[in-house]
Amino acid sequence: MELLTIGEFARASRLSAKALRLYDELGLLRPAVVDPGNGYRRYAPEQLEQARLVAWLRRIGMPLADIRSVVALPGADAADAVRRYWRRVEADTEAKRRLAADLVEYLSGRDVAMTASLVVKYAVRTDRGLVRESNQDFAYAGERLLAVADGFGKQGDAASQAAVSALQQVNVGDLLNAMEDAAHLAGQAVRDLDGSGTTLTALLWSGSRLGLVHIGDSRAYLLRDGELFQITHDDTMVQSMVDEGRLTAAEAASHPDRSLLTKALTGNENPGVQVREGQAGDRYLLSSDGLHTVVDIDTVRKVIESEEPQQAVDRLVTLANAAGGPDNISCVVAHLIQR
Ligand code: MN
Fold it and tell me: In the chain, how many domains are there?
């Protein structure tokens, strides 16, 4: 077997010697032989294939730790791993695309005088449900803030309340700034509740603009032009499996582990934020999972579309309890109305 020097191998694989040394250090591609005297690396010609595979995986942006596991897999499993990685990239890119679109909208509207000022008409309701011993949800609706939080752990009720209270401290003037404050303050709010935490989904209003704060599996929906859109993305295990194409939305909805969160406020992580533009006629629903996992979405849409906020929240809680009320139920409904 004719071994190649690192220079020869670099030329043959079209990788730099520097990259090859890095791959060696990271355990992605070990030389066939390292001279114990001078430390020179030598490669076998058969290693070219693996070197090219590493280079291709680098080119599609796969993190080094993932490459390490992919190159060790048999072909079919490696193919699967690349497929899953790419779905993740696409989901991530889609999230960034939305952020960029929000930002474009935000910046384009910044210089326009706020002529069309909107009034928010809202109602809030939270209910223990029929099974849980206490209500660890916390919900709030006011002129500037709408919020739903679903606490968990020993001090879950304190956590959900603290997260929402933190948002009440936010001074909503300059919205981008306010959103950063909101994320930070909410993150801090639950720090000292030893492991207890909460989900948080909230809307902060500034004129016709609204900031969406979100972490966990509570949800925000928007009814516009007769259609109900979920405008938050669940931070759950099953949702990430849906994103990767490993589960359908229907399978996720009935999955036994559907309430397993990938992110929540526990003091280590801040919620994500988004800036959106409100329109007269928009209707918003914030809900904890005690509502949206037991009342089907089409029923929810009809209630939001046909009822005033107070009737809507009452009706939704009644429907969730009629479905067994297995969890605490919270909802906020808000209508955006031209002043
Ligand atoms: Mn819940």
Answer: 3
In a shared domain, residues 234 and 278: yes
- 113 band by pLDDT with thresholds 50, 70 and 90: very low
What was the pLDDT predicted at 115?
Answer: 46
- What is the distance in A from the centroid of ligand 1 to the CA of 323? 15
Number of other residues whose CB lies within 10 A of the CB of residue 208: 19
pTM for the model stands at 0.73
**In angstroms, what is the span from residue 42 Cα to ligand 1's centroid?**
58
How far, CA to CA in Å, does 137 sit from each of 47, 167, 233?
57, 16, 19
Residues 166 and 216 in one domain: yes
- For the cut 70, the answer to whether the pLDDT of residue 116 exceeds it is no
What's the gap in Å between 261 CA and the centre of ligand 1?
Answer: 11
Spacing, Cα 154 to ligand 1 middle (Å): 14
Ligand 1 center to residue 269 CA distance, Å? 19
Give yes or no: residues 90 and 210 share one domain. Answer: no
